[in-house]
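Input (structure):
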C-alpha cells in the first residue's frame, strides 16, 4: 500500500460504496471530471447487492460510461465491508474509499483500518463522526496528519451537504480567530457530557447556530411559510415530498426525530474543541408523534401512519401564526455556556431563517472577528447533486496532496 507521503505510481484508485441518491450523482459528476484528472482510476463500485471491481493492477479500470448496466449485470456479488480495506490496500497507488452510504457497519469495519493503512476516506456519512467521543478521537489519531502514515479523512458533506461549513470553520481555527473573554467559572449546572477539552484557546469559536437540516428546512418553509397563501398542504404530504426530492435520510424518521441535526451539531462541536459524549448529551426535540415513537416498521409504513397526526403540526403552526410568527427547526452551540440544543422555534418573519427557501441551510458562526455580525453560510443543504459536489470536492482535496 502506498501511503500519502510515499512515492506512488502516481495513480489514485477510488473505491465507491453506495450508489443511491448521493452516490449516483457522485459518479455522474466524477465521470464528467475524469478527462481532466488522468491520475484517477475507478477500482471498485459496490451497491448493497452487487459490485464491479477492476483488477487492481490492470490499467484498464472500471469505465463510468455504463456503470449502472455493468453493476446490475455484474457476476460479482456485493463486497463485504471487512474485505474493502484489504482490496483497496492491494491497489498499486494511493487508494480512496468514497462512502456514500449511512451504514454503521461499513464505518465499523473499514474506517480505522483504511486510515491506518494509508487509505484515504471521503464521505457524507455522519455516523462515524457523531458516535462516541472516543471514536472521534480514534479517527483523528488514525488519519493524516496526526498519523503521518495515515490516510486523509474529509467529510465536508456531513454538515450542510456541499456548503463550505467545515472548511470555513477549519480556516477560522487555523487562522487563530480570537474569542471574547469568558467567565472564569462555567455555570454549575454544566452538563457533564459536554466539556471544553482544553482551556479557551485563542482560536476557539464561540457560537454556531441556524438551520442545519435541508429536510426540516424544506418542511417548515413549505408548511409554515411567511406568506399565508396558498394554504399549505398537510404535514405528512410535505414529508413525502421531501423524501421524493432526495432530501431525507434513508429513513426520514432520522430527520424528523432531530437525530440528523443532532449528529451535525456533535460534528461541529467536536470540530471547534468541545468534547461531546454523544447525540444524547443535549436536548433534541423529536417531531415523531409520541404514539409512533416506539413503533418499528418500514419508512413507508411510518409515513402512512403519520397522516393521522397532521393535526398536531397544524396546531403548532396556528400557535405561531397567532403571534405573527413562523416555525423553523433550528440548532445552536454556545461554547461559553456549553449548551447545545435542537428543536422547533417560533421566529419572526423578518428573521434570516424565516426567509429560507427549499432545502436551504443557514449557519451563523460567531468569533472575535465575526462578533457583531456573524459569518453566515447559506444555501441548499440537501439533495443528491449538492451533496455529491461536496464529496467530489473532498476527493480533489486528497488528489492535490498525493504526490504524483
Ligand atoms: N441526501 C442528501 O441530501 C444528503 C445525504 N447525506 C448523507 O449521504 C449518505 C447517502 O445518502 P443518500 O444517497 O441520500 O441515501 P440513499 O439511501 O439514497 O443511498 C444510500 C445507498 O447506500 C446503499 N448501501 C447501504 N449500505 C451499503 C453497503 N454496506 N454497501 C454498499 N451500499 C450500501 C443503499 O443501498 P440499499 O438502498 O439497497 O440499502 C443505498 O443505495 C447518507 O449518509 C446521508 O446522511 C449527507 C448530506 C446530504
Ligand atoms: N437528511 C439530511 C441530508 C443532509 O445532511 C438533511 O435533510 O439535511
Ligand atoms: Na458541508
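Output (sequence):
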Amino acid at each position: 500500500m502506498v501511503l500519502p507521503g510515499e512515492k506512488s505510481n502516481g495513480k489514485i484508485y477510488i473505491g465507491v460504496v453506495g450508489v443511491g441518491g448521493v452516490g449516483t450523482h457522485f459518479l455522474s459528476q466524477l465521470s464528467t471530471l475524469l478527462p481532466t484528472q488522468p491520475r484517477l482510476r475507478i477500482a471498485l463500485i459496490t451497491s448493497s447487492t452487487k459490485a464491479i471491481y477492476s483488477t487492481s493492477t490492470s490499467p484498464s479500470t472500471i469505465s463510468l460510461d455504463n456503470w449502472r448496466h455493468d453493476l446490475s449485470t455484474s457476476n460479482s456479488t456485493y463486497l463485504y465491508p471487512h474485505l474493502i480495506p484489504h482490496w483497496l490496500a492491494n491497489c498499486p497507488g494511493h487508494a480512496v474509499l468514497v462512502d456514500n452510504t449511512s451504514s454503521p457497519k461499513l464505518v465499523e469495519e473499514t474506517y480505522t483500518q483504511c486510515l491506518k493503512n494509508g487509505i484515504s476516506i471521503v464521505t457524507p456519512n455522519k455516523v462515524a463522526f457523531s458516535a462516541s467521543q472516543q471514536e472521534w478521537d480514534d479517527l483523528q489519531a488514525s488519519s493524516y496528519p496526526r498519523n503521518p502514515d495515515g490516510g486523509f479523512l474529509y467529510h465536508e458533506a456531513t454538515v450542510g451537504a456541499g456548503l463550505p461549513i467545515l472548511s470555513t470553520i477549519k480556516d477560522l481555527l487555523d487562522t487563530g480567530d480570537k474569542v471574547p473573554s469568558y467567565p472564569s467559572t462555567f455555570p454549575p449546572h454544566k452538563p457533564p457530557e459536554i466539556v471544553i477539552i482544553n482551556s479557551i484557546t485563542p482560536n476557539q469559536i464561540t457560537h454556531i447556530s441556524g438551520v442545519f437540516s435541508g429536510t426540516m428546512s424544506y418542511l417548515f418553509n413549505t408548511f409554515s411559510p411567511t406568506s399565508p397563501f396558498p394554504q399549505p398542504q398537510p404535514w405528512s404530504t410535505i414529508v413525502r415530498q421531501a423524501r421524493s426530492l432526495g432530501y431525507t435520510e434513508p429513513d426520514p424518521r432520522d430527520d424528523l426525530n432531530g437525530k440528523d441535526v443532532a449528529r451535525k451539531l456533535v460534528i461541529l462541536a467536536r470540530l471547534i474543541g468541545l468534547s461531546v459524549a454523544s447525540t444524547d448529551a443535549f436536548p433534541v426535540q423529536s417531531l415523531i408523534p409520541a404514539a409512533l415513537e416506539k413503533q418499528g416498521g418500514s419508512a413507508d409504513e411510518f409515513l402512512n401512519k403519520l397522516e393521522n397526526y397532521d393535526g398536531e403540526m397544524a396546531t403548532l403552526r396556528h400557535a405561531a401564526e397567532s403571534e405573527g410568527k413562523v416555525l423553523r427547526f433550528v440548532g445552536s452551540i454556545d461554547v461559553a455556556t456549553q449548551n447545545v440544543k435542537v428543536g422547533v422555534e417560533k421566529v419572526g418573519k423578518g428573521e434570516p431563517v424565516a426567509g429560507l427557501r427549499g432545502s436551504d441551510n443557514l449557519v451563523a458562526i460567531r468569533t472575535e472577528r465575526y462578533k457583531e455580525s456573524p459569518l453566515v453560510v447559506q444555501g441548499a443543504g440537501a439533495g443528491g447533486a449538492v451533496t455529491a459536489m461536496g464529496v467530489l470536492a473532498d476527493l480533489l482535496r486528497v488528489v492535490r496532496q498525493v504526490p504524483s
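Notes: The CA atoms of residues 46 and 164 lie 28 Å apart. Residues 179-191 have pLDDT under 50 and may be disordered.
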